[in-house]
Amino acid sequence: MVAVGLVVAAVLVLAAGAGQAELRRAGRFDVQRALTAGYLSLGKEKGYQLALSMPNAQVVIFSAVRTERLQDERFSGRYSVYVTRNRGSLERGVVRARFGSLGRVSLRLRPSGPTRRSDPRSGCEGGLLTARRGRFVGHLSFRGEGNYFHVASPKGNGYIAHSPRLRCEQGKAEERPPRSLRAYAAPNFVFSDEQSIALLYASTHSHGRYVGISAMHREESRPGADVQLKIVEPRRGMVTGHGAFLDGPPGTLLTSRPGAHPATATLAPPAPFYGEAAYSEEADAWTGNLGVKIAGLSLPLSGPDFHARLCVVNPLRDKDGCDFFKTEPAFIERPARPGWMLR
Length: 343
Prior knowledge:
Blueprint: H1 2-14, E1 23-26, E2 29-32, E3 35-45, E4 48-56, E5 59-69, E6 75-85, E7 94-98, E8 103-111, E9 116-118, E10 124-126, E11 129-143, E12 150-151, E13 157-163, E14 166-169, H2 181-185, E15 196-206, E16 209-218, E17 225-235, E18 238-248, E19 253-255, E20 264-267, E21 273-274, E22 277-280, E23 285-288, E24 291-294, E25 297-300, E26 307-312
Antiparallel strand pairs: 1-2, 2-14, 3-4, 3-13, 4-5, 5-6, 6-18, 7-8, 8-11, 9-11, 10-14, 11-12, 11-13, 15-16, 15-26, 16-17, 17-18, 19-20, 20-22, 21-24, 22-23, 24-25
């Protein structure tokens, strides 16, 4: 589980990754359009791994990721991503972006060493993939909310990679990049809901801000629950995303038995969360003092503005287990369902 958390954290640093491209059907082949992407490591500060990534020529992402080992080989992590448009020409090695009052970027890649070339991946054919490595020079300043980190200059090495137009076997080309900045600010959930026998999900969507917290217990897993939080909020000229995930100890999630009515649940995860919240099917309420302190923010995670749903099954009777669809809110609340409001 710790290894999984560290791998996911690395994915969050890339915040959508490089190599996504639009598909176009052409007979038995998929046509993958040309793509330029870049990445700059900014080192570590106050436990956060900082990076600037360009998943394509149009988007710039500043990310901060922190993972920690807990007792009994458990782990936790938290992340923040700030997404905006690139005003420079990445093809020419230029990145220019503004992150509101938090910071700005004006950089140019200064290559060092020869350009690296490689063949397309298996199942695709076309020109060679190229990568220019070196140092980004220029101006970079960014101050996290609440001053939980501060970067004043480009510190590390980076690269800009280019993939030409490729022809790929059906299913081999990579997916097209999302158009909305929201999608880049909300990486996929860390924990899968597969084989969950208990799944609690509570969310709210107000004034453009989405907050969603889930807790699940999988069949045959040790006592405890996997907890994950997403916060996505548009701001002027950019979108911010904050989140936390942890492998919670025993007592994190307590639910009524499968088939019990009215169903109940109590969620009390450890830091960066505080307090606890209770769900009552009878009252259709999510109450308590549960909250989170993350990235300079302190937010409540319970109350009348939240919609909560609970699924508890007997694995001997329900082979499919729980999933997010079984906890899906009513139709009028669907914007609070994972994924829906990001489309």
